[in-house]
Write a structure and sequence with these properties.
Layout: E1 7-13, H1 31-39, E2 41-43, E3 46-47, H2 53-62, H3 66-69, H4 80-84, H5 87-93, E4 97-102, E5 140-143, H6 162-169, H7 174-180, H8 203-222, E6 230-235, H9 273-280, H10 288-297, H11 305-335, E7 342-348, H12 368-371, E8 375-378, E9 386-388, E10 392-393, H13 397-405, H14 419-422, E11 432-438, H15 440-443, E12 447-453, E13 457-462, E14 468-472, H16 490-501
Parallel strand pairs: 1-6, 1-7, 2-9, 3-10, 4-5, 4-6
Antiparallel strand pairs: 2-8, 7-8, 11-12, 12-13, 13-14
Helix pairs in contact: 8-11
Length: 518
């Protein structure tokens, strides 16, 4: 039996629906992620602790719910002291080599003023090409700082992040021009085009290239003694919008073959009040650039079926491109001789609405499209061909890593180890939690949302107004019938309300004000 401490490899995408993998959706091709699921364990009821990027990523790192670590929305930075005490900093102190490659988004990128972080678009003069960390507990970092370039938000100078600087240098500046150029016209679908950027210059390729190099070097440093295992977080920025898939991936899926959501028109009259308010409220922003970005970069008008099909085809292509690069990384583990002793987790930060209920991207509408996320695992002490149906969260990764590394879990986190479930053991979970405070600056309405997700039921409580939504996921998987005020489900609602009140851990006070938008 190999008594070496295992390596830990966390691979994440950004904004990937749980049903956008081959093992759940025969219309999309993800052979390498499917292989991880086949050789390991997948979770069918894993949720995100928050519906947008920054809070959910901070929760993965720290093992804390958003209102405990304090990042309650995009535009709120993770306190570096809290970040340094997350799984990377803790495992680093225990002898692990720690590295971060790709999109971090622990700090705000589009800020109102310089903040001094390596992700801030106004602070890059402090971080030249020779900076490689440390950052948030990771000893080595190579960042895709912007993550998603938008035509409405051109790349600023100096370029932010290792990847952006690298891309600007391609072809004498041709990289940015090709990214924004189209190989062929489309339908005018929102934030969707066929990018002319060569696949070799794409962020998914770059992230895999850098990860393969770092993993190979780390495995060599560990050597035969095995006293320096590695813990790496490899973070792909896609399939987050803009849906700008390059060739050949943009040719992989024909929009005519896309299966569109059955319920793809808005039905706001049957939803809680905040669904409409968040879509139509005016953000309270004094910064005209930020207001324009919010209007053009985060809200999508009604799309025709042809436009939604094109958007979906590009979204699928982005996922298949990521899957290809996941395969390259898995091959690198085998080439380095460490595949058998590496715990590999593939997951994402949150999902994507993709036209269901007439909605797109993300927002304070915790449908399963957005709340439920992919999570698969393979490695030592992981059962193969196993499906886990217990409600869990990406929040639980930190405690899982501590368990595998033989490191004591900090007592102030809400993360619960998945090790017993991964090994095929019983570990009943009552519920998983997701929460979000929403500042009126973001969409014009303040909200205090608490979502409790059991195996068969899910309820979201809006604390300020007392409104909510309750869905029977077993009998109404499309979430068409809100049972919150149905007397026949009063007992279920009370059970979920009691679980909400029993939320573990402290709540940070006061909560920080936003310093930017994304």
């Amino acid at each position: 039996m190999n008594k070496k401490r295992p390596n830990i490899l966390l691979i994440t995408s950004d904004q990937q629906r749980a049903d956008c993998n081959g093992f759940e959706n025969r219309h999309i091709k993800t052979p390498h992620i499917d292989r991880l699921a086949r050789e390991g364990t997948r979770f069918s009821a894993c949720i995100t602790p928050n519906l947008v990027c920054q809070p959910s990523r901070a929760s993965i790192l720290t093992g804390m719910l958003p209102l405990t670590h304090g990042v309650w929305d995009n535009g709120v930075d993770l306190d570096p002291r809290v970040g340094d005490s997350g799984f990377a900093g803790t495992l680093g102190k225990a002898g692990y080599q720690t590295g971060f490659i790709g999109k971090a988004h622990f700090s705000t990128k589009s800020t109102f003023a310089p903040t001094g972080t390596p992700e801030c678009n106004k602070s890059q003069a402090q971080y030249g090409p020779g900076w490689f960390g440390p950052y948030m507990g990771f000893q080595h970092c190579e960042l895709v700082a912007l993550g998603h370039l938008h035509r409405a938000r051109p790349l600023e100078e100096p370029a932010v992040g290792h990847y952006e600087r690298w891309l600007v240098s391609r072809g004498g500046g041709e990289g940015i021009a090709l990214w924004a150029a189209e190989t062929r016209p489309g339908t005018g679908a929102a934030q969707t085009w066929y990018s002319a950027l060569p696949a070799a210059w794409h962020s998914s390729t770059w992230v895999a290239d850098r990860a393969i190099r770092w993993i190979g070097d780390a495995a060599a440093r560990n050597g035969a003694e095995g006293d320096q295992p590695f813990c790496a977080w490899v973070s792909f920025p896609d399939p987050h919008h803009a849906f700008d898939c390059p060739e050949p991936w943009s040719l992989m899926y024909d929009p005519k073959d896309m299966v569109l959501p059955k319920y793809r028109t808005r039905d706001l009259e049957r939803r809680p009040w905040w669904h409409k308010a968040s879509l139509e409220g005016k953000p309270q922003l004094d910064d005209p650039v930020m207001l324009k970005f919010r209007a053009e970069g985060s809200r999508v008008p009604d799309q025709s079926d042809a436009q939604l099909a094109e958007m979906t085809a590009n979204y699928y292509g982005m996922i298949s491109q990521i899957d290809h690069n996941v395969g390259r990384i898995l091959s690198a583990l085998e080439a380095a001789g460490v595949a058998d002793n590496t715990l590999v987790i593939y997951t994402t930060d949150h999902g994507e609405l993709l036209g269901n209920h007439g909605l797109y991207l993300k927002g304070p509408t915790p449908y399963e499209d957005l709340l439920r996320v992919t999570m698969v695992a393979r490695g030592p002490r992981v059962a193969s061909r196993q499906l886990v149906v217990e409600p869990v969260s990406t929040l639980d990764l930190a405690a899982t890593f501590y368990d595998y590394a033989g490191v004591a879990k900090p007592g102030d986190i809400q993360s619960r180890s998945l090790a017993k479930l991964l090994g095929g053991g019983a570990d009943t979970r009552d519920a998983a939690y997701s929460e979000w405070h929403l500042h009126p600056s973001r969409c014009g309405v303040a909200l205090k949302l608490r979502t409790v997700r059991m195996r068969d039921f899910k309820c979201t409580f809006e604390l300020a107004s007392g409104a909510g939504e309750l869905y029977d996921l077993k009998n109404d998987p499309a979430e068409m019938h809100n049972l919150y005020d149905d007397a026949g489900y009063a007992g279920v609602r009370k059970q979920l309300h009691d679980l909400m009140l029993a939320r573990p851990g402290a709540i940070a006070a006061p909560l920080a004000e936003p310093i930017g938008m994304a």
